[in-house]
């Protein structure tokens, strides 16, 4: 990966932000900047160097993963202590506002509160625009996620419990080489499909029910995320019509995507259509979110987000309509924002699947 | 669960700590005190009340789960804002030192930095001693975890990849009703078994290899954690002898457990024996850790931890020996600290299993 280029980009940001170094503690940011996957580390970046502080458990792994991007220091007496001792040499010490209060206290003690500068989302802002290596990783993750969906669907029967389907999806992810699920898999049937954040439960999915499946994997450090809604039987008029509304909304949102278009505009494309069809009150969440090293990252594709989408952003498009007591439909793809429009990465078809 | 009793115990702590209320943000602590499982919440506890602030997604779930223990407030304009507005009514506002720097900043703005009191691990300290309801939950989780181990072992063949075995273990957990794995399942064969924190990889486990399996589940909110080391073939003298050393060390540590004994003493029981047998340099981690709502919680069973174990603490006992280039052995059970000694919850036998 282009770690050197990413560190260089960060250095421009540091100059603009008027800090002499940045202490990076968020695991996803350290991975992005250096490739290090360990659970304990602090990265100090200044105008010419990057130093990764970690502990003895990673004495072999850290140089292997991050040695090309950063100098690795294995700390015996505490990672924080060593990194803060080094940070003392700078006049203005930036740290991530996402850090813990304890870290802030230790830094205030170690460096002096007056030299500390809290900075919000500097690395996250860089992560917003993906390079082609990252897009290739996300595509691999998306393709794996679609494949395991397609392998799992034939095993869905009315008597199978939601949590068995979730287990099956996650099992296939792991066997296919994913590190882990990107989030808790959602499998929600019938009236429970009307709850956008339902967990998979012990109930059988039942006959003639809307069934929402929302799952993602982490593969080689990158996330995927997809939702499909299927019907366990022959769909009646109401379910079919609900499905068509959401599908059309989703396609309109995708059609609205291209570099320079505001996030709010993409959200509006889905939301206005759902409203027009009379379901405005039943679409309580935003249209999508960025994904990459984390399954939820910048940008938010939501009504109040005026930020123009940059080329190279990778986002989900996932409108949903949830009718209490009846059921819900959500359809979600991952797309890359390109100059000319959206490049849809998710290959899984979107016609309504009627099972059994 | 005894939420009312736990809140009452916390109130005694608050009086001792000289704060008029405590803002609890750590998810595991909110669950412990109220039963709420949602991902967004802040709990304010004062001398007579407990108020849970959460958002619209949990309008149904929060009163169901936490309504008996706390008054639930559904916040439209931000959870933090609402909770901090309420906290303004107190002179000394405690907050968890484990909170984020951003929360601290918001609290300093909302309440005034001079009225804020950072407090370390108040709820965590209560969680150290489990009540019998909690021990029953942990036992259920441990039994599930042992059962799925015993179901999975027969499917281990030399040509099966580490990650396939990990996937199988996690799949069976989920099917058996677990919410999720308690941590990333470790399956490490041959020389890789000599890395205490190896992940499961795409390599087949191979013939005549030591194979470490370390896994746990979260069931009904409570963790389990076990490790067994098996041999894929007929074990030679060296592997067998390594195994016997670790098993004896583990049994000595278990035999040393009872209420009032220092954590360091339990660690020493394992460590001294391993040292005596010449493997002192190959046991680089501590002997165990507490578990409950989280898979790693207080106490640490380590050389420098002088704290006496209280009755009702639940800990793992998991010494290991890791010989670079050859392989490693770790054996781990969950035990309850009782007045008279250790009550071992893990039922899985500990003789060396030779597969195939």
Return the CATH architecture of the largest domain in chain A.
Alpha-Beta Complex
Radius of gyration of chain A in whole Å, from Cα? 23 Å
Mean pLDDT of chain A: 96
Strand order of the largest sheet of chain A: 4-3-2-1-5-6
Question: Quick gist of this model?
Answer:
The structure is a homodimer. Chain A is built from ten helices and 20 strands.
Itemize the secondary structure elements and their pairings.
2 copies of one chain form a homodimer.
Chain A: H1 3-17, E1 21-24, H2 27-34, E2 42-46, E3 50-55, H3 61-66, E4 71-75, H4 79-87, E5 93-96, H5 101-111, E6 116-119, H6 122-127, H7 132-152, H8 162-175, E7 180-181, E8 186-189, E9 210-215, E10 217-219, E11 222-223, E12 226-231, H9 237-256, H10 263-276, E13 288-290, E14 297-301, E15 314-317, E16 320-323, E17 327-330, E18 333-337, E19 342-344, E20 353-354
Parallel strand pairs in A: 1-5, 3-4, 5-6, 12-20
Antiparallel strand pairs in A: 1-2, 2-3, 7-10, 8-9, 9-12, 10-11, 13-14, 15-18, 16-17, 18-19
Helix pairs in contact in A: 4-5, 7-8, 9-10
């Amino acid at each position: 990966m282009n770690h050197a280029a990413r560190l260089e980009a960060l250095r421009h940001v540091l100059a603009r932000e008027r800090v002499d170094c940045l202490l990076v503690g968020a695991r996803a940011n350290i991975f992005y900047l250096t490739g290090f996957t360990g659970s304990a580390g602090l990265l100090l970046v200044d105008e010419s160097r990057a130093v990764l502080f970690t502990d003895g458990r990673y004495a072999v792994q850290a140089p292997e993963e991050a040695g090309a991007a950063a100098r690795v220091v294995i700390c015996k007496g505490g990672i924080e202590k060593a990194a803060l001792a080094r940070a003392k040499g700078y006049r203005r010490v930036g740290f991530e506002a996402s850090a813990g209060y304890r870290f802030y206290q230790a830094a205030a003690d170690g460096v002096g509160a007056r030299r500390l500068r809290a900075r919000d989302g500097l690395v996250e802002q860089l992560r917003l625009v993906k390079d082609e290596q990252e897009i290739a990783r996300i595509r691999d993750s998306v393709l794996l996620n679609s494949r395991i969906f397609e392998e799992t669907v034939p095993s869905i029967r009315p008597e199978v419990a939601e949590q068995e389907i979730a287990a099956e999806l996650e099992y296939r992810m792991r066997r296919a080489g994913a590190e882990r699920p990107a989030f808790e898999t959602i499998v929600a049937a019938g009236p429970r499909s009307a709850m956008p954040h339902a967990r998979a439960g012990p109930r059988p999915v039942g006959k003639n029910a809307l069934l929402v499946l929302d799952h993602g994997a982490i593969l080689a450090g990158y996330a995927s995320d997809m939702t499909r809604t299927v019907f366990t039987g022959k769909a009646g008029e109401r379910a079919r019509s609900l499905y068509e509304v959401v599908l059309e909304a989703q396609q309109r949102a995708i059609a609205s995507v291209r570099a320079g278009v505001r996030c709010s505009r993409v959200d509006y494309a889905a939301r206005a259509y759902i409203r027009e069809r009379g379901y405005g009150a039943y679409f309580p969440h935003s249209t999508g979110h960025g994904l990459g090293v984390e399954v939820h990252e910048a940008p938010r594709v939501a009504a109040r987000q005026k930020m123009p989408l940059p080329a190279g952003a990778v986002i989900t498009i996932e409108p949903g309509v949830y009718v209490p007591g009846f059921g819900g439909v959500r359809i979600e793809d991952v797309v890359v924002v390109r100059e000319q429009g959206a490049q849809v990465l998710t290959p899984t078809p979107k016609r309504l699947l009627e099972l059994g």
